[in-house]
Design goal:
CATH superfamily of the largest domain: Thiolase/Chalcone synthase
Radius of gyration: 19 Å
Strand content: 15-25%
Largest sheet: 11 strands, mixed
Order of helices and strands: EEEEHHEHEHEHEHEEEEHEHHHEE
CATH class of the largest domain: Alpha Beta
CATH architecture of the largest domain: 3-Layer(aba) Sandwich
Number of helices: 10
Number of strands: 15
Shape: globular
Helix content: 25-40%
């Protein structure tokens, strides 16, 4: 596997607002394992807790109740509903009117339906009357969306762009599959549901957070997708009985994941940013154990590598924006830039950006 051509956006953009939305209260991994695994036998519950300790996800939010094997999202916690709540929170922080966005961009790999795209319902729910689009992408959806936002806000006075990542992947899981499909244990213990959004505008010379060094790259001669939802597409339109489930080659993801993060680190270095200067390095929050592992590999203090995934799980397309929202509310965070490094094993891509927080105001 080798890196392809890097896309590095020029200039800086104002981060006007940010926000997140989660479905219901957090549930601890211990309570989740008790609820789901007790019917599978004591040995399975012990296995679940051992794997959970390795993954390091202590809790997450879920759009379903796990009262039965196959479920729909709870009313109010559907994919576009969560996205709309996160976008409203970001718009409120930015002080924007209901229909102030030039463009709305959503990204998700667990949409409410194949057609129409989720951005249409999100736009209706927040009162956005302008253009919108949905990117069908997982953990680096944020990076592609940011490339579009940089282009759309290049001119002074441009109207802002809203971006929202959202996942409701817990419904793509049947606990009965734990008996026969080993890869489903990682999906069960690692994933969470939620949405997070940002509002991006042109640099206007004022105070406040600035986004820069936005980049995206893809790998060549990459292995088959490490995570995919094959059923339901036009290549495989005849669905089997039961729930659609992620096919997860976690061994391949573990083998090649570091390569993706290294490409992100090199892209930031090309733009003049070093991990050593960051107040916080924010890799894709695949699990709670990733941060300490990367800190050791990069020779960084463990407290300077984000571990947001430990409390919310892997949020897929929403992961980076959700971590940003959490960090922007952390008054104890030391001065310095935040450096974000996304990585995605569905297509072995990487992306990220640098964020200078500036004066946040009230």
């Amino acid at each position: 596997m080798r890196p392809g051509r890097l896309r590095l956006a020029s200039g800086r953009r104002r981060l006007l607002g940010w926000g997140s939305a989660y479905p219901g209260p957090a549930i601890s991994t211990e309570d989740l394992c008790r609820q789901v695994c007790d019917g599978l036998g004591y040995g399975k519950r012990r296995l679940a807790m051992a794997l959970a300790q390795r993954l390091g996800v202590r809790s997450r939010h879920l759009c379903r109740d796990f009262a039965q094997g196959l479920e729909l999202p709870r009313p109010g916690d559907r994919n576009p509903e969560l996205a709309a709540r996160a976008l409203r929170a970001a718009q409120t922080r930015a002080g924007l009117a209901e229909d102030a966005l030039a463009y709305l961009i959503s990204h998700s790999c667990t949409p409410a339906q194949l057609l129409p795209g989720g951005s249409a319902e999100i736009a209706q729910r927040i009162g956005h009357q302008g253009a919108h689009l949905e990117l069908r992408q997982a953990c680096t959806g944020f990076a592609n969306a940011l490339q579009l936002a940089f282009a759309l806000t290049a001119e002074p006075g441009s109207a802002p762009v809203g971006i929202v990542g959202v996942e409701t992947g817990s419904v793509f899981f049947d606990p009965a599959s734990l008996q026969t499909q080993g890869e489903q244990w990682v999906n069960f213990l690692q994933m969470g549901d939620g949405a997070a959004a940002v509002i991006v505008g042109p640099e206007d010379g004022g105070q406040g957070p600035l986004l820069q060094a936005a980049f995206f790259g893809q790998c060549q001669q990459a292995p088959p997708a490490g995570l995919r939802l094959r059923m339901g597409g036009s290549d495989c339109p005849l669905l089997q009985a039961g729930a659609l489930q992620f096919e997860h080659d976690y061994a391949s993801v573990a083998e090649h994941g570091l390569f993706l993060f290294e490409q992100g680190r090199q892209a930031l270095a090309q733009a003049g940013w070093s991990l050593a200067q960051a107040a916080m390095c924010v890799p894709h929050q695949a699990s709670g154990s990733l941060g300490p592992w990367l800190a050791q590999h990069w020779g960084l203090p463990v407290e300077r590598v984000c571990q947001h995934g430990a409390s919310v799980g892997n949020l897929g397309s929403a992961s980076i924006w959700a971590a940003l929202d959490r960090l922007m509310s952390d008054a104890a965070l030391p001065a310095g830039p935040l450096l974000f490094l996304g990585a995605e094993a569905t297509q072995y891509s990487y992306g990220g950006f640098a964020l200078e927080r500036g004066e946040l105001g009230a």
